[in-house]
Amino acid sequence: MTNLIIQGICGRMGHALVEKISARTDCRVVAGVDQMAGSLGDIPVYPSLEDLPGDVSGVVIDFTSPAGAVQAARYCAAHGMPCVLCSTGLSKEEEAAVEAASDRVPVFRSANMSVGINVLIELARQAARLFDGEFDIEIVEKHHHNKLDAPSGTALMIADAINAEAGGRYEYVYDRHAVRQKRGAQELGISSVRGGGIVGDHDVLFCGPEEVVTISHVAQSRGVFADGAVQAALFLDGRDPGYYTMSDLLKGKMQCI
């Protein structure tokens, strides 16, 4: 049985995590961390990680903010606990702090915790290799009207994976309204849509002269991100210190097939 500690337990993703974990028999939530301290059902909630009792330990899952992710990484490094960091938008300095923590404990980091979206990234990488620059590539991402960043961190993850496969040949283009010219051969277009309650849709289009191949992923609820975070926590339990990503988790799944 893997013990889990959720930082941000009173938020939307925290509630989604608790719901997912309550249906499992291989893990349990032993504590939560949130400014709204007290309890969530029978789960004790503390105002900060530093307020956790000395006898409480487990894998920390953080769904808060870049600052919260760094706080979780540093706390876990000091207390010998693995952590799963799900926040996006970390600065270079914050990323460096997370990587420093991974020298002491296992750290799992992903800008998108959906297993499905990470399978899409692997498929897009393979398609980029097979088409070898012969098809134009466009990414279209859609999210709810409250999302602050555009393009999404996931769209950039997809673009970066494709560009790495292509040897860095692509230049990202986010907006064409002010430029009246033909599309460049080395462009990789990224478009953003914001509206309603869209949880997260991502389409990768490989556009050839007479055919289009589209790889799509649609997140229908926040539960997919919660499920991925739980899988990541179980993957980390008992691992050696290091920096782990969804690629490592997917490789583990492939070895089991």
Summarize the structure in short.
The chain is an alpha/beta fold.
Features:
257 residues; alpha/beta; Rossmann fold; Dihydrodipicolinate Reductase, domain 2; 2 domains; 8-stranded mixed β-sheet; 5-stranded mixed β-sheet; 13 strands; 27% strand
3D structure, described in words:
The two termini are 24 Å apart. With 257 residues, the protein is of the alpha/beta class. The radius of gyration is 20 Å and the shape is elongated. It has an 8-stranded mixed sheet with strand order 3-4-2-1-5-6-7-13, sandwiched between helices. A 5-stranded mixed sheet has the order 9-10-8-11-12, covered by helices on one side. It folds into 2 domains: 2-113 and 222-255, 3-Layer(aba) Sandwich (Rossmann fold), CATH 3.40.50.720; 115-219, Dihydrodipicolinate Reductase, domain 2 (2-Layer Sandwich), CATH 3.30.360.10. 35% of the residues lie in helices and 27% in strands.
Query: Terminal Cα separation, in Å?
Result: 24 Å
CATH topology of the largest domain: Rossmann fold
CATH architecture identity of the largest domain: 3-Layer(aba) Sandwich
Shape: elongated
Percent in helix: 25-40%
Strand adjacency order, main sheet? 3-4-2-1-5-6-7-13
* SSE arrangement, N to C: EHEEEEHEHEHEHEEEEHEH
Low-confidence stretches: none
Instruction: Note the total helix count.
Output: 7
For the largest beta-sheet, the strand count, sense and barrel status come to: 8 strands, mixed
CATH class of the largest domain: Alpha Beta
Radius of gyration: 20 Å
Give the helix/strand class: alpha/beta
Mean pLDDT: 92
Q: Strand-residue fraction?
A: 25-35%
Using DSSP, what is the number of strands? 13
Overall tally of domains: 2
CATH-defined superfamily of the largest domain: NAD(P)-binding Rossmann-like Domain
